Amino acid sequence: RYAPSTESVLRKVILGQPCSLEMFRSMSEKEQLLDQAIASGSGNAILKVLLFLDRTLKKKLFYSLLQMRPEAVHHYVNYLALRLKVSECTDLLVFLGRHHEASLLQFSIFVCSTSNVEFKRQRLKKIYGDYFSQPGSNSFYAQLVANYINLLEYQSSELHATGGSKAAVEIQDKSVLETLHYVCGKYKWGDTSLQTNDNPFKLAENHQISQAQFEWIALNERAKQQAWLDFDHIFEKKAWLNLKQKSFKLNIPIDRTILRLHALHAPEPVINTFLAKVEDPQRRLALARRVNSKHGTIDAMVLLKDRAELEAYRSTLESGTEERLYAENALKSLNNTWKSDAMKLIK
């Protein structure tokens, strides 16, 4: 009987024409078929051959064929993962000695495949016990999974503790940053006794949230609640050598912070506090003008010792207002500084 060549069969597969692979019966024929499919570079051809081999070979023999063919493994793993064939995919990866990938695959599939927090938590705890807590497991990924389980447990406990409040419902199965936003809203700022996830600082520490991420989330949440006094607890840090002394520390770009506060309708004194941290007077002046901070604009002009500009700006301010008085006092201060500098030059 006529036996079509491997090349002609694969050509039909690549072109999408109907054809059967059943005539390839011996192990050597199947191996050659797979190698030529890989050489063709056609993902469809590779997958069709792989599915044929999976159906006609014992698992161990099939996996052995794949062992030396990483491109075939890549296609087959993707195929199984997309169809949520977790057990088959895991078995293959474990057989190939790719334990980390097997554990991460299980993790990613169960994270994405359900929104049921309790089911997800139980599955992840099992995966953690089966893979990530075993000797030789990757400590980084193990911590990642442990943190995620911890996050789900916190979200679930909040749901029960609040009797299913709207805010607690909204954080179910949400990211750690969204959960941080929730915690910032319920926390009594200044209370350092809490050492649980109910303390935003502790939550950030437990989940390796960066200082910049923490500050941005906390700033936005507190600003939306107009809780401006809480900014002291967010941005003031105790000095390392002197615990009574506090310093203002900001890890997010100052320009972005000021513009965001302006967008959130922060009072001018709050914006001025941040403007005062801009060291470059020209940059401070530009920012102050951009957010329409009168005090900030005046302060920047004083730093620049620009009397003419300050006088011109004063004339734009309404007489009798606090801002006008502030500008006049700033001019007096500037004049006194100018006289003092002049006297030093004379001496």
Notable characteristics:
69% helix; single chain; 347 residues; 2% strand; two-stranded antiparallel sheet; disordered C terminus; Vps16_C_sf; mainly alpha; cytoplasmic vesicle; elongated; Spe-39; Putative golgi integral membrane protein
Write the topology of this structure.
Blueprint: H1 6-15, H2 27-40, H3 43-56, H4 59-67, H5 70-82, H6 86-95, H7 99-112, H8 117-132, H9 139-161, H10 166-170, H11 176-186, H12 200-206, H13 211-224, H14 231-235, E1 236-238, E2 246-248, H15 254-263, H16 268-275, H17 281-290, H18 294-304, H19 307-315, H20 322-346
Antiparallel strand pairs: 1-2
Helix pairs in contact: 2-3, 3-5, 5-6, 6-7, 7-8, 8-9, 11-13, 15-16, 17-18, 18-20, 19-20
Percent strand equals: under 5%
| DSSP strand tally | 2
Helix fraction by DSSP (H/I, runs of at least 4): 55-70%
Mean pLDDT: 88
Strands across the major sheet, in which order? 1-2
Low-confidence stretches are 338-347
Shape: elongated
Q: Name the structural class.
A: mainly alpha
**C-alpha termini separation:** 117 Å
The number of helical segments is 20
Output the radius of gyration. 33 Å
Order of helices and strands: HHHHHHHHHHHHHHEEHHHHHH
Largest sheet: 2 strands, antiparallel
Description of the structure:
Among the domains are: 1-97; 115-174, no CATH class. Helix content is 69%, strand content 2%. It has helices spanning 6-15, 27-40, 43-56, 59-67, 70-82, 86-95, 99-112, 117-132, 139-161, 166-170, 176-186, 200-206, 211-224, 231-235, 254-263, 268-275, 281-290, 294-304, 307-315, 322-346, and strands at 236-238, 246-248. Strands 1-2 form a two-stranded antiparallel sheet. Helix 8 (117-132) runs antiparallel to helix 9 (139-161) and helix 17 runs antiparallel to helix 18 (294-304).
